Amino acid sequence: MKRNNMIAMILAGGRGSRLYDLTNKLAKPAVSYGGKYRIIDFPLSNCANSGIDVIGVLTQYESIFLNSYVTVDSRWGLDSNDAGIYVLPPREKAGENLNIYRGTADAITQNIDFIDNENPDFVLILSGDHIYKMNYDKMLREHISSFADASIAVIDVPKQEASRFGIMNADATGRILEFEEKPAHPKSTLASMGIYIFNWKLLRKLLIADDKNNKSSHDFGKDLIPQMLKDNRILHAYKFKGYWKDVGTIDSLWEANMDLLDPQTELNLNDETWKIYTEDTNDLPQYMGPEAVIKKAYITQGCVVEGEVTGSILFTGVKVGKGAKIIDSVLMPGVVIEEGAVITRALVADGVRIAKNTVAGKAGSEHITLVASDIKEEPKETPKESAKESVKDGKDSKDNKSAKDVRPAKESVSVKEERSAKK
Predict the structure, then answer these.
(1) Which residue(s) pair with 38 in the sheet?
(2) Which of 3, 148, 165, 408 has the fewest C-beta atoms under 10 angstroms from its C-beta?
(3) What is the pTM for the complete model shown?
(4) What is the Cα–Cα distance from 357 to 64, expressed in whole angstroms?
């Protein structure tokens, strides 16, 4: 059997609607991060580093790119005879119609046959859209020693933020006594990370019972975990200490990228003992022109910088023209910033071109500006007032999914400002 007798199932079918245009044609786990990575690289690398040889990746929304990306299992050293990464989309079965995944638990239920074929003792359930490094084998050892039916990874969060998460109330031994889904008045600050280890034989029975319950939403947090507590099952809280980020909004994705510029960050991507593996590119080394000014920046392969970059992350193949200024911003792969343009506190989506002498973003803005489509040069006529208002309101109408309102370089405009939303 496998080295630790545990397989992993990564839930990677989410849309990530609060990332707006970044996920219009791309599943959230496939979104770029940290100069050269994708979000899905983190749970996959954690599995490989933890000695987990068999991984199922459950995809659904806009999965074409994600499916092709994760099946190159050699990136994570999982291409041996008894190892592999398996893409598991919803599928039509004999005597049944094609069913989409109705919830996190249902996604596992629909793949019971896959898990049975591997015959593990334990199943690790993961989310495919969080940024963190974690040793799952260490969690498994604690799960076994606590004689738990299920273990849930938790992280201590600030009291004022606890109402945004599923909160676990546990006793001094770590046994979970109560689960509260986004409580208005949380009793503790132990937030669920959406990482579970289950004893497979028990989970299998619970999933089959849940599938037959017409009143269930078929979700681990809403249905299975509360049912296990009701049945007096032993649920153990595994306390994780380290970096963990749910990058579900433009602001949080920008923050997670900016964290890499902090020399004291807990997310050390240079750690040789716990590498994060990803797709290698054939781009040339980065080039800094004679007039380039670089201050505290992450600059990846294939970048050409002839302007000024301060406190920013430049992904693969970014071009920054002469006189252009990039300040506290994240530029995703293939972005082109022409001469004299100024980008401040913005996240610029893949392949976007920003014309010379235009501006996006604003210093001190409450939210991060998302630039999801090309910004062209200032037209001779003043843009219509209705377009300006749509940008200010952050509306996503058919005519303005990615606002293109621009101003001369001495003014600033919020091309599209991410609005706060409760998780």
Answers:
(1) 32
(2) 408
(3) 0.87
(4) 37
